[in-house]
Amino acid sequence: MCNSCRTSKGAFLPGNSTVVMKDIEIPAPGHGQVVLKTKSSTICGSDIRAIYNEHLGKGPEAYQNKVAGHEPCGQIIECGPGMKRFKEGDRVVVYHISGCGVCNDCRRGYMISCTSEHRAAYGWQRDGGMAEYIIADEKDLVLLPDSLTYTDGAQIACGFGTVYEGLEKIGISGNDQVLVTGLGPVGLAACMLAKAMGAQKIVATDISEERCQIALDKGLADEVFVSGPDSLEKAMAASDGYGYERTVDCSGHTTARQLCIRANRKWGKMVLIGEGGTLEINPSPDMIHDQKTVFGSWVTSIWKMEELVERIERWGIHPEDLVTHRFTLDQADKAYELMASGKCGKVAVVFDEEVK
Which H, E and C letters describe the chain, residue by residue? Predict the structure, then answer.
């Protein structure tokens, strides 16, 4: 990449539901770093909740006026010195947290849990994917096979990786009926992956009619209903009165979480994936007497993400099927506005061959 090409437009999120485009300079990659040509960068609900509307993070978790976008995927166009695996031309997914690499959590592959001062998230504390080029560390990359598109890859680290980690914790098989609450992009991914993993029946619910319809239109769930005061009765009826061996909350809302616990079958397992909110339960009837287990699951490890890429290819599924809207970089403000409305599936900002 020539020095004259080292500028790009980048999208920044100053708060107040606003997107600002700025010119940025792309430096030469350092030791163990690459320059990626961005191909697709999808928008995460955490961007909306914690940056786009207002800056909620504190200290090392705060948004530090960087190029937004922590779900990027692209192609390596330049390598710095000291590369060990990847090369120019490789198609790669970026694990969205760059950890210190030497703490216990990083050595387990869970850079999301790194507490070092050196931890920096793409799109939060270092420049992310809402620009034509990205500087990324080689250790944060996962190879994207040719059978998957860049928009498939953009969703793997945060969206699908987060779901896969949670589903692996509770285990999904052909023995299971699964209830998913919350049908934003993470909930839709939960339906898609649970189905690929062999779930016998999938029932899903959301407060949004639009998102319920997306799940039906894309064939991701067997039954879907808009949540309300009778949600437990509807959920139990959809399970033929037995309840669900596995339940998955992707909503982050107490009533949906209560539904997951109370619709869980005896000895059932539930995973909390959706961020935020609270959970009010009556422990004895809701959990103890039926011997249920609730797991918390936060993002995923990079080795599990690499495993997921292999599984997605084997299962023949495409995360990009959840993308309902694509925008080019100059339309980033419209992309964030739509995602914030909640009346859509996944939203992607795309470049080059991913523009359709």
Answer: CCHHHCEEEEEEEEECCEEEEEEEECCCCCCCEEEEEEEEEECCHHHHHHHHCCCCCCHHHCCCCCCCCCCEEEEEEEECCCCCCCCCCCEEEECCEECCCCCHHHHCCCHHHCCCCCCEEECCCECCCCECEEEEEHHHEEECCCCCCHHHHHCHHHHHHHHHHHHHHHCCCCCCEEEEECCCHHHHHHHHHHHHCCCCEEEEEECCHHHHHHHHHCCCCCEEEECCCCHHHHHHHHCCCCCEEEEEECCCCHHHHHHHHHHEEEEEEEEECCCCCCCCCCHHHHHHCCCCEEEECCCCCHHHHHHHHHHHHHHCCCHHHHEEEEECHHHHHHHHHHHHHCCCCEEEEECHHHCC
